[in-house]
Amino acid sequence: MQTIGIDLGGTNIKAALVGDGGQILRQMSCPTALPRPAEAICEDILGLCGELIRQAEGPVMGVGVGCPGTVDADAGMVLYANNLGWEMFPIGRILRQRLGMPVALANDANAAAYGEAMAGCAQDAQSAVILTLGTGVGGGVILDGRLLTGYTGGAAEPGHIIIQQGGEACTCGCRGCLEAYASATALIRQTRRAMRQNPRSLMHALTGQGPVTGRTAFDAAAAGDAAAQQVVDTYIQYLAVGVASLINLFFPQVVGLSGGVANQGEALLEPLRRAVEPMVYGHAFSQKHTRIVGCSLGYQAGLVGAAFLARGQA
Amino acid sequence: MQTIGIDLGGTNIKAALVGDGGQILRQMSCPTALPRPAEAICEDILGLCGELIRQAEGPVMGVGVGCPGTVDADAGMVLYANNLGWEMFPIGRILRQRLGMPVALANDANAAAYGEAMAGCAQDAQSAVILTLGTGVGGGVILDGRLLTGYTGGAAEPGHIIIQQGGEACTCGCRGCLEAYASATALIRQTRRAMRQNPRSLMHALTGQGPVTGRTAFDAAAAGDAAAQQVVDTYIQYLAVGVASLINLFFPQVVGLSGGVANQGEALLEPLRRAVEPMVYGHAFSQKHTRIVGCSLGYQAGLVGAAFLARGQA
Fold this sequence. Notes:
Two copies of one chain form a homodimer. By secondary structure, chain A is an alpha/beta fold. The first copy, chain A, has helices at residues 38-55, 91-99, 108-119, 179-182, 184-197, 202-207, 216-222, 226-250, 266-276, 301-313; strands at residues 2-8, 12-18, 24-31, 60-67, 70-72, 77-81, 86-89, 103-107, 127-133, 137-143, 146-147, 254-258, 291-294. Chain A has a five-stranded mixed beta sheet with strand order 3-2-1-4-8. In chain A, strands 11-10-9-12-13 form a five-stranded mixed beta sheet, with helices on both faces. The longest helix of chain A is centred in the last third of the chain and has 25 residues, at 226-250. The relative contact order of chain A is 0.16. At the A-B interface, helix 8 of A face helix 8 of B.
């Protein structure tokens, strides 16, 4: 079955025709060009869909859209998307009417998580929790092939479980969220703090005149810098607390990590697994264990996931 | 459909014949009388089932058993139950063979949560998270009428999400678990600490020569004692952090609280709701909200839940 996946971002609108096994058959994109009316963005999405349908060999059975913000999937409605400036916009209904085919809608982080579960790092897994360690901490939970969206439609927000009561301020207005400790933004803040306290650390030489990034501490630690190693260890301990909490709720087959920080690969994953294991409830008595892995689809996860969500509607 | 629910505890084995709507038609019990061999306990369960089947008007379609410890529901196996002294005991298979009818197995906290979801405080809800605030913090998660057990079978352990990295020691060996802050045991520890620091607090007069309980601080706070009010406020803030984290993952229709501390009713629930609300992600933009309520089945939740689990097998 061929379906179309749309990844609606603040910078670009990406569209892909996706085949049976999750392979991307054709891909195109256009700038989101904010600020402009929601209706104009819809027209561009319709244009991309029309072009992909024309180019497709065989019928296209549906369209899935991953949108930033809070989404009511059943109603096909974006309730609120801060970076698009949308409030109560019925994108699903509009696309369905104009295209004459089923349209699925999901939060963009959920769509990407679904992609990883269906065709990426958690393919064929009974269940998966996907965490994206980027500007924020997003993600999604997939149980028995279904995206967990909850009663309110807002699930899941793994970045906003609280791991330190009264701790660091989070962008959401609360204190102590996982996002405030385990996002790339948080890692950069932790790195800058350590650099101020350690003026002779290799981290200064590595960044030079350039900006501090999520790689700075990992690179300096790999080169033997003690202060950087401390940053990395502390970051991983915070992330481990979040991952362990998620395992103790879902006991999923796979926890998949994506986003900038996850590009560290085994330099992140290996110590993370060691830190998580003693915090997993009943670990010693369980015969099955959660695998903690890197995601495999990269920036295409959202496109592939949105296309797979369309199958559920078709 | 009539089924039998078994609640296997460290003190008593309870058994009930449960009717279509979740009503208990007949109930009996016998002492668990530990320590003794698992096989002997099985014989007593078989005896209770036989008696209930004899007394039933109409056919009994299956048996559900709620057991303490870690359970592999699919295999009908108790993997490890510390307080029974069981390891790898195939109780489900034994009962099925001897009774000649389907037997469902679940962790006891999960069985009780399922009872509340099917016939108690979350009846007809799309999803529910049940938290038991007792000696520990147990519970379960029910999504679309199904118990979340996860890939490993260990789900869910809401008492072992970590709300304070590096915080209070938990019975599980970790630090900072919700259980270490929100169980009745934790509340008693917090109350004792405040009593030592406040020798003139009303809490001393209220307990007299008797033991400090989970009610001590709530009772003294209701009578206007400031130190007790501080204990209650802090306890509720910790509990709220845990409840908010659970909402931010599951966005369930209902969060139900049971166990000793939940007997405080609105004295607990009303300030809890106020503390949770600002920590719920996207609360201002969502049109649907999670209800936080007290559970309604009391100690019968486990029996009713086990009986309902048997229906899934029948």
